[in-house]
Automatic annotation (TrEMBL):
This is YrrS. The keyword Transmembrane applies. Residues 83-112, 136-148 have a biased composition (Polar residues). It comes from Neobacillus massiliamazoniensis. Residues 47-148 are annotated as: Disordered. The keyword ATP-binding does not apply. Residues 127-220 form the DUF1510 domain. Residues 65-82 have a biased composition (Basic and acidic residues). Pfam families: DUF1510 (PF07423). Keywords: Membrane, Transmembrane, Transmembrane helix.
């Protein structure tokens, strides 16, 4: 009877061990597969990890930091305040010029004296302004008026005429520009706008070292 039982027990033990080995091998294989998957997910895209790391190191790369924005706003406010102070100082000092949108100098008209008529029946009104100043010059030494359109003197005379009338030179046609025989070292010019709606006769005088200075402007009814 013992001979019948022992062979069965040994056979059962072998079968049990075989099943156990199969289960263990299966588990080992499953663990290996999981290790491979996890390792691939970690090392498959190192570039994206670096990019994420860099992005985290500098999270404010596309826009200014709040601190820098605050500095920029303070700087802008300071510049505006300085500009306002400069403007106020200029007004207190009686600055006689302003700057137009095109950057050209324009006379302060607040002190202008306007009277009807003028030196001829063709004059509508006469304007004289004590605030007018010489427009500046690049010339030096003794001065003699030069009425050559390519000369520096001619251009500086046009600057003085534009300054007194407010007529931009790009919109100004010179009808006449020559010597004012009634005054030494002085000139007179007649100019008009391209649409002929503005017509002026302008008297200017030379100031040594400072350039041409307007003395009188006559608004004309027609060109003669």
């Amino acid at each position: 009877m013992n001979n019948d039982v022992n062979p069965r027990s040994r056979a059962g033990s072998r079968a049990k061990r075989k099943k156990t080995n199969i289960v263990l091998n299966g588990l080992i294989g499953l663990v290996l597969i999981l290790i491979i998957i996890v390792g691939y997910s970690i090392f498959a895209s190192p570039g994206s990890d670096k990019a994420s790391s860099k992005k985290n190191d500098n999270p404010i790369s596309a826009e200014k930091s709040p601190q820098k924005k605050g500095k920029d706003n303070k700087k802008a406010s300071k510049e505006v305040k300085q500009a306002d102070q400069s403007s106020a100082t200029a007004q207190q000092n009686g600055d006689s010029t302003t700057t137009g949108q095109d950057g050209s100098s324009q006379a302060d008209t607040s002190q202008a004296v306007v009277s009807n008529g003028g030196s001829s029946p063709n004059v509508v009104k006469t304007i004289e302004n004590p605030a007018w100043k010489p427009v500046g010059t690049t010339q030096s030494g003794s001065h003699t008026p030069v009425y050559d359109q390519s000369s520096t003197d001619w251009q500086e005379m046009l600057n003085a005429i534009s300054y007194a009338t407010g007529l931009d030179q790009s919109n100004m046609i010179v009808y006449f520009l020559g010597r004012d025989k009634s005054t030494a070292n002085a000139s007179v010019g007649t100019v008009y706008s391209k649409d002929k709606q503005q017509k002026y006769k302008v008297y200017i005088k030379w100031v040594d070292g400072q350039g041409w200075q307007p003395t009188k402007v006559e608004e004309l009814s027609s060109l003669q």
